[in-house]
Amino acid sequence: MSIKARANLRLKLNSKKQLMTILNALTPEAQASPTHRASIKLKEDGLFLVLAVDAEDTVALRATLNAYLHWVNSAINVIDIVENQKSF
């Protein structure tokens, strides 16, 4: 893959537990990328989830970022719902 587009994002999460839950959920997706046009590396840095995306073009970069940001947002919403259910 010839890299023409790159993005690095650092997303601060509320807790180490939230970070590890999301990291564990997304790692299989990152390891088995459905396209050869983009690759992503995930890692933790304190309370930050770091996403490093390399892509052949900006279209692939945007699609990959959108997918992962959507998955992170969905995971946070589910974690919040589960934690609120424990309060009842």
Characteristic terms for this protein:
27% strand; single chain; alpha+beta; 2 helices; 3-stranded antiparallel β-sheet; 88 residues; TATA-Binding Protein
Describe what this molecule looks like in 3D.
Helix content is 52%, strand content 27%. It is α+β, with helices and mostly antiparallel strands and 88 residues long. It has one domain (5-87): 2-Layer Sandwich (TATA-Binding Protein), CATH 3.30.310.50. The protein is elongated.
Draw up the topology in text:
Blueprint: E1 5-12, H1 16-31, E2 38-45, E3 48-55, H2 58-87
Antiparallel strand pairs: 1-3, 2-3
Outline:
With 88 residues, the protein is α+β, with helices and mostly antiparallel strands. It has helices at 16-31, 58-87; strands at residues 5-12, 38-45, 48-55. It contains 2 helices and 3 strands, in the order βαββα.
Distance between the termini: 50 Å
CATH topology name: TATA-Binding Protein
As for the number of domains, it is 1
Highest CATH level, the class: Alpha Beta
Percentage of β-strand residues:
25-35%
**Individual helix count:** 2
